[in-house]
Design goal:
Shape: globular
Strand content: 5-15%
CATH class of the largest domain: Alpha Beta
CATH architecture of the largest domain: 3-Layer(aba) Sandwich
Largest sheet: 9 strands, mixed
Strand order of the largest sheet: 1-2-6-5-4-3-7-8-9
Number of helices: 17
Radius of gyration: 21 Å
Structural class: alpha/beta
Order of helices and strands: HHHHHHEHEEHEHEHEHEHEHEHHEHHEE
Distance between the termini: 34 Å
Number of strands: 12
């Protein structure tokens, strides 16, 4: 940004996101205006007409008086944080199709257009068994050039990121706080976060810089972990583990859920064993994962997405496209397929460069 130049449009969406009481659903309503500079300057009455509660509209007006968009832009540049909205070509297609996609994400590092990502999550209180399994699975999948997503938490998450880095693979850490240096959480994994960036991976959050790691942020974070990926692997989790929330989000969004079996006497395995009991795929190696997805040779993380062959599901869905845009809802009815499954197939087709998302859940064949 040159001195004296006006702040770019995305900065105004960031400023709106700084008001944490809006949340992703309200922010999505406001972000539909596209002219975020205008949205930023809207009166309380205009916000109320848009569907924002009266008390929040007035609170926002007070909060807005404390914000300087130009200074906000400078802070982001100094922290090497990039803004990505749903209109940006770099916004991950699978994430765009979840029930409540974040209107804006913050990124440090490199968000690569990987054609295949898996999440590996689990307990913060990791056992020697869990540590061994998390490390082995992560290494095996990274060796097959699968991108790995986790949450930078203590325990399984940290072990996963370390193992992928050591294999020279690609990993994304999704945080429940800001991704600026001062906000990275937990602090004990600060150096690990720096290694992820240096290795060519990425830190991602829907929370702005300086956002603290509030308890309510982590379920929101977990939906992004699930939403970025084609499937979630739970390595080790107690009955109340946050990793199970990620698994449930994955189920809701039509992603595959996999779990590693554990000792029936171990509290750390109660959650994973229960997932298997309820229908999660039992896995013990990377090969199990690859076979589940029908991958004889795993795709690489690169820009040549169109080289991956279309599956029968994808071919069948494409039959319902013509020259006109069509909605995900219409496709679900025509294909007689549940919406979460349709969204997953659409994500794959977009990644392969076969269709284009026009926004408003409308798609067109390229």
């Amino acid at each position: 940004m040159s001195i004296g130049s006006p702040p770019n449009n995305l900065i105004y969406l960031h400023c709106l996101n700084r008001f944490n009481k809006f949340g992703p659903k309200r922010l999505a309503k406001i972000s539909q205006l596209k002219n975020w500079g205008k949205a930023f300057r809207m009166s309380a009455k205009e916000l109320i007409n848009l569907g924002i509660e009266e008390n929040l509209a007035h609170e926002w007006i007070k909060f807005r008086s404390l914000l300087n968009p130009r200074q906000e832009e400078q802070k982001l540049q100094q922290a090497n944080i990039h803004l990505i909205s749903q209109d940006c070509p770099t916004y991950p297609p699978p994430l765009k199709h979840i029930a409540v996609p974040p209107p804006l994400i913050y990124v440090r590092g490199e968000l690569k257009p990987c054609s295949f990502l898996l999440a590996i999550v689990g307990s913060r209180k990791i056992s020697p068994y869990g540590k061994r399994v998390a490390s082995q699975l992560s290494r095996q999948l990274a060796a097959r050039q699968i991108g790995i997503v986790s949450g930078l938490a203590l325990g399984v998450d940290a072990e996963v990121h370390r193992a992928v880095i050591e294999m020279g693979g690609y990993t994304i850490a999704v945080l429940g706080s800001g991704i600026d240096d001062a906000s990275i959480y937990p602090r004990s994994n600060f150096q690990l976060a720096q290694r992820i960036i240096k290795q060519g991976g990425a830190l991602i959050s829907e929370f702005p810089p300086f956002a603290p790691p509030l308890k309510q942020h982590f379920p929101q974070r977990n939906r992004i972990i699930a939403g970025l990926t084609q499937g979630v692997i739970v390595v080790e989790a107690g009955e109340k583990s946050g990793a199970l929330i990620t698994a449930y989000y994955a189920l809701e969004e039509g992603r595959e859920v996999m779990a590693v079996p554990g000792n029936i006497y171990s509290p750390n395995s109660q959650g994973t064993n229960r997932l298997i009991q309820k229908g999660a795929h039992l896995i013990s190696s990377a090969q199990d994962c690859l076979e589940l997805f029908g991958l004889t040779s795993a795709p690489k993380c690169n820009n040549n997405k169109a080289n991956a062959p279309l599956t029968e599901e994808e071919k069948n869905l494409l039959k319902h496209f013509d020259s006109e845009p069509i909605s995900a809802e219409e496709l679900a009815m025509l294909a007689k397929t549940p919406a979460p499954q349709i969204n997953q197939i659409l994500s794959w087709l977009e990644l392969k460069g076969v269709i284009k998302d026009l926004g408003g859940k409308k798609f067109v064949k390229i």
